[in-house]
Structures are given as C-alpha cells and as structure tokens.
C-alpha cells in the first residue's frame, strides 16, 4: 500500500487537500467580504452521487468562477444552506472534484500550476492557441481524461470555452455527455466579470453582488437525443441561448460589449 494515496492523475491527495485549504482561506473574502456571493439551490449538491457528475456553467473569469464553486460545493456538503459562512467547511474538502481548463493557461506560471494541482483536467483547445485562431482535431486523450475524472468524482466544465457571453457552446461537451452519461447539473453565475479581472485573480471592484444558481439535473436521453439537441438544452439551462439576448436592452448590451473590449485590452 503506497504511503501517500494518489488520484487517477497521479496527484498526491494530501498535497491537493492542503492546496485547496490554503487557496480557500486566501480567496474566501473575495466572495464574503470584499464582495457578496448570493447562492441559490446549494441543497441540490447534497443529493448528487459521489461520482459521474458534470457541472456545466457559463464562464466569466478564468479562475474566480471555479474557485467560488469549490467554496459553494464544499460548504453545501458540510450542511450549509446557500451560504459560505464559517470557512471550517474547507478543512476536509471534496478532493475528487475537477474542472476542465485549457492546458496552455495552466502552464503559464507557478500559480497556475498550483491551481492545476488543485483539480484541473487540462485539455488542448481546438479553436484557439496562444491568442490565435486554430483548427485542430480533438485529442482523444483529453476526452479520456475527462472520463477518468468523471469516473473518480465531479467535473466542472465551461462549454463555451470563453469568458465572452452568448458565444456558441462547443459540441465536445455533448460528446462527453453522450459517451459517459453523467448527471448533468447546470450552474448560472453572474457578477464575476464586474468584480474581477479577466483572469479572476485581481479584484477589479469591491461591493459587487455576485450570484450562483445551481439548477436541478437535466433530463437527457443519452441514447436518442442528438448532439445539437443536447447543446441547445445546455444553452437554455445555463442561460446562454441567443434568445436570452432579446430580453436585454440596447444600453445593457452596449455596456457588456464595452466591458468585453476593456477586458480583452487589459488581459
């Protein structure tokens, strides 16, 4: 029996646990202090199976979104109802929780490598590389690694593959759903793009109300629903379907566009 237990990716669990603890302590005030995080549906977390759960969410920053989910999911598992009050919930975190991230992003610095050890399933982006548009084939090893993570526990993914709102969802997520048949839980977030920079590492503005809504698992016919039908179902579930644009005013759309340009400029 090995001295230090490892997960399927070779990460030593005690090291991963301490990384999660330290990062949680450092980041806690970003969601309950400098800013406020309003949570809805956290009780759903406690009803989920231990493995093969896929969380799908819209995306607003590289890291602040997923760090917030680590807080909320662990707090809920420790009996908190829609709150991350009392950070004691992080002492024994769920270590079989992962998130999908671009491999090139996770290799950029010592900090991103530490964040990767906390649970990243790094994949090669097929449409973007080093700031340029590309057209690459999906690496089957990436799909297999996501399947390995699902077999071990929970996986968080951002199917748009970008922090820009209302961009089309990547069909790769539908392929993963069809292949591995996970419980699919939609998560809708807001406020993170206003309170953090694009990377989600620097606080851009204080006093912002952030929100996270965890929805009931989707009803998916894994055998008979098409990839396109699943993608459309995901778009509606995470409120990124083009029809949602119709309810926004021209002023709101212009503000979002200006904010996206500023974030791209400062990235």
Shape assignment: globular
The number of helical segments is 9
Uncertain runs are none
Helical residue percent band: 25-40%
Sequence of strands across the biggest β-sheet: 1-9-8-2-7-3-4
| Mean pLDDT, all residues | 86
Which value, in Å, is the CA radius of gyration? 18 Å
The helix/strand order is: HEEHEHHEEEHEHEHEHH
Q: Give the distance, in angstroms, between the N- and C-terminal Cα atoms.
A: 46 Å
The biggest beta sheet, please?
Answer: 7 strands, mixed
The helix/strand class is: alpha/beta
Beta strands, count: 9
Percent of residues in β-strands: 15-25%
Walk me through this protein's architecture.
With 267 residues, this protein is of the alpha/beta class. 37% of the residues lie in helices and 16% in strands. It contains 9 helices and 9 strands. The strands form 2 sheets. A 7-stranded mixed beta sheet has the order 1-9-8-2-7-3-4, with helices on both faces. A hairpin with a 2-residue loop joins strand 5 (128-129) and strand 6. Helix 1 packs across helix 2 and helix 6 crosses helix 8 (227-237).
């Amino acid at each position: 029996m090995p001295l230090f237990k490892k997960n399927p990716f070779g990460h030593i669990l005690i090291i991963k646990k301490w990384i999660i603890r330290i990062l949680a302590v450092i980041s806690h005030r970003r969601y309950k202090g400098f800013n406020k995080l309003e949570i809805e549906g956290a009780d759903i977390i406690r009803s989920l199976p231990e493995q093969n759960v896929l969380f799908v969410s819209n995306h607003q920053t590289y890291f602040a979104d997923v760090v917030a989910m680590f807080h909320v999911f662990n707090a809920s598992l420790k009996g908190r109802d829609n709150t991350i009050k009392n950070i004691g919930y992080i002492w024994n975190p769920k270590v079989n929780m992962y998130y999908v991230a671009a491999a090139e992003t996770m290799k950029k610095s010592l900090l991103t490598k530490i964040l990767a050890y906390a649970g990243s399933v790094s994949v090669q982006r097929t449409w973007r590389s080093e700031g340029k548009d590309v057209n690459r084939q999906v690496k089957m090893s990436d799909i297999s690694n996501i399947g390995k993570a699902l077999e071990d526990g929970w996986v968080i993914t951002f199917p748009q593959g970008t922090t820009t709102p209302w961009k089309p969802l990547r069909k790769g997520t539908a392929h993963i759903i069809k292949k591995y048949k996970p419980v699919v839980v939609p998560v809708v977030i807001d406020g993170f793009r206003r309170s953090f920079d694009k990377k989600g590492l620097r606080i851009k503005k204080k006093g912002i109300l952030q929100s996270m809504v965890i929805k009931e698992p989707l009803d998916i016919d894994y055998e008979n629903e098409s990839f396109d039908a699943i993608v459309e179902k995901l778009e509606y579930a995470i409120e990124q379907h083009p029809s949602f644009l119709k309810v926004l005013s021209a002023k709101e759309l212009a503000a979002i566009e200006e904010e996206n340009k500023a974030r791209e400029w400062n990235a």
